[in-house]
């Protein structure tokens, strides 16, 4: 299986490829459109800000390419946020528009610290091949300041001063707001499901 | 269910090995870094902090070889502290697979560093470590060069002002090391942590003083910190993480099982 890891300049690319390695899968770090379009699975990682992330994808000529991907696509953390239509980060950024919805800032309060950082539970889990074997209430590692409110595309949510999308899906595009590569057995399960359970 | 409070074992690293010294001296080899990291990850640690004790006092950067080995081996997040003085060194450490970098003395020398790191990598990668001690006038103030007892210096800025400032600059998390309670194992400095909590809107991690399970319960219940860091009680096996988590859960504190 050819797994393309889109080199969008995020710093968690190494961690994602190591997590795939631990599952016995090899991935190819690439910004080459032909590689991405020929892959059986495409993962869009990313840590950082939406503005810089989109700028980098535009410079690499990957904005349209990601829209053309026919294979299952998984966005991770910022990679998931970029799948939506718009992000409020950096004063407002038009993003890839592959999943309907918008990303907004998590409102901080005395009890709600931002960034949302740490292990939070997944709730409202919808039956989906990506979430096979993942139980209601299991915890994943989150670290982000912006988030997508829950909506019709939400497959699992998490609570931090409001209910946020933890996993989303639109067609063959999935996104995980948490870091599966750093979410212990739950994360490994999700990545394995993405490789094995999710079919074209 | 909500966000879990975190338990963070801290490992001192010297030339790619985990070491333990008594008050920064006489370091004893504790074992292979990857082996220990995997053991902690398997025991339920929520996050690991590696403090490169060779890097900072000697003016060297971090050797990213061990960072990459750890990143390959474990599936929980980890932070690297010590020796990070620039966006370039931080980038090398993050690209090697660390999830966060922590800056302490270099931030006191050049506070703009915090903003530069946040701008380059996002606030979620940027931890500011603060070494703090109460002075005779009753105010907590920060210390720099704490890695070397002979070089440690007190600064004018109060701890509360410093925490406000680094958060404004872009710290995504603050680790407050209360030097007065550090190494004494008589509990975290609840008064100081609670005072810093008041001015710290980002996640706050308590460090210094853990000696018993009750100390962890107290620091979460009374100082409302997001995480508790400790070294000795985990390394010497006196507080196994699984039983600590059980005690915390029994006390009504949200933890990851």
Automatic annotation (TrEMBL), chain A:
Gene3D superfamilies membership: 3.40.50.880
Protein name: Imidazole glycerol phosphate synthase subunit HisH
Subcellular location, principal: cytoplasm
GO molecular function, one term: imidazoleglycerol-phosphate synthase activity
Function: IGPS catalyzes the conversion of PRFAR and glutamine to IGP, AICAR and glutamate. The HisH subunit catalyzes the hydrolysis of glutamine to glutamate and ammonia as part of the synthesis of IGP and AICAR. The resulting ammonia molecule is channeled to the active site of HisF.
NCBIfam families linked: IMP_synth_hisH
GO biological process terms on file: L-histidine biosynthetic process
Domain Glutamine amidotransferase intervals: 6-197
Entry EC no(s): 4.3.2.10, 3.5.1.2
Catalytic activity: L-glutamine + H2O = L-glutamate + NH4(+); 5-[(5-phospho-1-deoxy-D-ribulos-1-ylimino)methylamino]-1-(5-phospho-beta-D-ribosyl)imidazole-4-carboxamide + L-glutamine = D-erythro-1-(imidazol-4-yl)glycerol 3-phosphate + 5-amino-1-(5-phospho-beta-D-ribosyl)imidazole-4-carboxamide + L-glutamate + H(+)
Record key words, sorted: Amino-acid biosynthesis, Cytoplasm, Glutamine amidotransferase, Histidine biosynthesis, Hydrolase, Lyase
The UniProt record lists the keyword Cytoplasm: yes
PROSITE patterns: GATASE_TYPE_1
Pfam family, one: GATase
Positions annotated as active site in the UniProt record: 77 (nucleophile), 179, 181
Location within or outside the cell: Cytoplasm
CDD domains listed in its UniProt record: GATase1_IGP_Synthase (cd01748)
From TrEMBL, chain B:
EC number(s) recorded for this UniProt protein: 4.3.2.10
UniProt keyword annotation of Membrane present: no
A Pfam family it matches: His_biosynth
The UniProt record lists the keyword Cytoplasm: yes
Assigned keywords, A-Z: Amino-acid biosynthesis, Cytoplasm, Histidine biosynthesis, Lyase
Domain of life, per lineage: Bacteria
InterPro entries xrefs: Aldolase_TIM (IPR013785), His_biosynth (IPR006062), HisF (IPR004651), IGPS_HisA/HisF (IPR050064), RibuloseP-bd_barrel (IPR011060)
GO biological process, any: L-histidine biosynthetic process
Catalytic activity field: 5-[(5-phospho-1-deoxy-D-ribulos-1-ylimino)methylamino]-1-(5-phospho-beta-D-ribosyl)imidazole-4-carboxamide + L-glutamine = D-erythro-1-(imidazol-4-yl)glycerol 3-phosphate + 5-amino-1-(5-phospho-beta-D-ribosyl)imidazole-4-carboxamide + L-glutamate + H(+)
GO cellular component, one term: cytoplasm
Pathway: Amino-acid biosynthesis; L-histidine biosynthesis; L-histidine from 5-phospho-alpha-D-ribose 1-diphosphate: step 5/9
Entry's localization field: Cytoplasm
Family: Belongs to the HisA/HisF family.
Function: IGPS catalyzes the conversion of PRFAR and glutamine to IGP, AICAR and glutamate. The HisF subunit catalyzes the cyclization activity that produces IGP and AICAR from PRFAR using the ammonia provided by the HisH subunit.
Subunit structure comment from the entry: Heterodimer of HisH and HisF.
NCBIfam families with a match to the protein in the record: hisF
Protein name as annotated: Imidazole glycerol phosphate synthase subunit HisF
Organism field: Serinicoccus chungangensis
């Amino acid at each position: 299986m050819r797994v393309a890891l889109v080199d969008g300049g995020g710093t968690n690319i190494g961690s994602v490829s190591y997590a795939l390695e631990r599952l016995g899968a090899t991935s190819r770090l690439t910004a080459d459109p032909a590689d991405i379009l020929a892959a059986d699975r495409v993962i869009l990682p990313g840590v950082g800000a939406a503005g810089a992330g989109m700028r980098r994808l535009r410079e690499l000529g990957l904005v349209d390419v990601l829209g053309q991907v026919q294979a299952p696509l998984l966005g991770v953390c910022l990679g998931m946020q970029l799948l939506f239509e718009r992000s409020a980060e950096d004063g407002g950024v038009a993003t890839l528009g592959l999943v309907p919805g918008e990303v907004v800032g998590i409102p901080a309060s005395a009890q709600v610290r931002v960034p949302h950082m740490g292990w939070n539970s997944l709730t409202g889990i919808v039956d989906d091949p990506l979430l096979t074997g993942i139980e209601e209430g299991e915890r994943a590692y989150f670290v982000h300041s912006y988030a997508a409110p829950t909506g019709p595309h939400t497959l699992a949510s998490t609570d931090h001063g409001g209910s946020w999308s933890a996993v989303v899906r639109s067609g063959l595009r999935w996104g995980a707001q948490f870091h599966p590569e750093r979410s212990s057995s739950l994360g490994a399960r999700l990545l394995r499901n993405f490789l094995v359970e999710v079919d074209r | 269910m909500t966000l879990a409070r975190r338990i963070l074992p801290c490992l001192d690293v010297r030339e790619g090995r985990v070491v333990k010294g008594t008050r920064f001296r006489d370091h004893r080899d504790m074992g292979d870094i990857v082996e220990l990291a995997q053991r902690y990850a398997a025991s339920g640690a929520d996050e690991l902090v590696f403090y490169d004790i060779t890097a900072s006092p000697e003016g060297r950067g971090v050797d990213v070889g061990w960072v990459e080995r750890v990143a390959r081996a474990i599936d929980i997040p980890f932070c690297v502290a010590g020796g990070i003085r620039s966006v370039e060194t931080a980038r090398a450490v993050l690209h090697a697979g660390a999830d966060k970098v922590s800056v302490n003395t270099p931030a006191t020398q050049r506070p703009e560093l915090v903003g530069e790191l946040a701008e380059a990598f996002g606030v979620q990668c940027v931890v500011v470590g603060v070494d703090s001690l109460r002075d005779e006038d009753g105010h907590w103030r920060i210390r720099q060069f704490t890695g070397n007892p002979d070089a440690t210096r007190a600064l004018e800025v109060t701890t509360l002002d410093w925490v406000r400032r680094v958060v404004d600059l872009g710290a995504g998390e603050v680790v407050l090391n209360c030097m007065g309670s550090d190494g004494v194992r008589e509990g975290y400095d609840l008064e100081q942590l609670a005072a810093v909590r008041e001015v710290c809107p980002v996640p706050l991690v308590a460090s210094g003083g853990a000696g018993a399970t009750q100390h962890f319960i107290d620091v979460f219940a009374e100082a409302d910190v997001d995480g508790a860091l400790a070294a000795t009680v985990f390394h010497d096996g006196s507080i196994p993480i699984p039983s600590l988590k059980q005690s915390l859960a029994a006390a009504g504190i949200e933890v990851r099982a």
